[in-house]
Amino acid sequence: QVQLVESGGGLVQAGGSLRLSCAASGRALSLYGMGWFRQAPEKEREIVAAISWNGVNTYYVDSVKGRFTVSRDNGKNMVYLQMNSLKPEDAAVYYCAAGRTTTTAVLVDVDRYNSWGQGTQVTVSS
């Protein structure tokens, strides 16, 4: 399995920006569809964004469309989530996840992911 480590979380004021990074090791990232999930206290984990193995196809949950951008650099084994215009409701622990795939479809179902990072906290003050 691929190992994932997130970074870039922190405290930001509403309207601000953060860039999360996910560093992968152990396997070539090009074998995996990638996703960013988040989980706020007492809420279920939800998918935020996903990207196909080749970066061509992306998915965003409605609440972040136009504000968040997912990208990847397979050569560097890195995945990113650029978060702009952050809102207090974006506060959560953000997780990077990987799922093996042989197609260019994005993986939306959480059950398709079998490798997870430890998470990085994002706090947004109002």
Structural class: mainly beta
- Sheet with the most strands? 7 strands, mixed
Helix content: under 10%
- Could you spell the SSE succession in H and E letters? EEEEEEEEEEE
Mean of residue pLDDT?
97
Q: Separation of termini?
A: 39 Å
Helix run count = 0
Q: Residue ranges: pLDDT <50 for 5 or more in a row? A: none
Q: What general outline do the C-alpha atoms trace?
A: globular
Number of strands: 11
Task: Tell me the strand percentage band.
Answer: over 45%
Radius of gyration: 13 Å
Structure write-up:
This protein is mainly beta. It is 0% helix and 50% strand. The protein has strands at 3-7, 10-13, 18-25, 32-39, 46-51, 58-60, 68-73, 78-83, 92-100, 115-116, 120-125. Strands 2, 4, 5, 6, 9, 10 and 11 form a seven-stranded mixed β-sheet that branches. Strand 7 and strand 8 form a beta hairpin. The chain is globular.
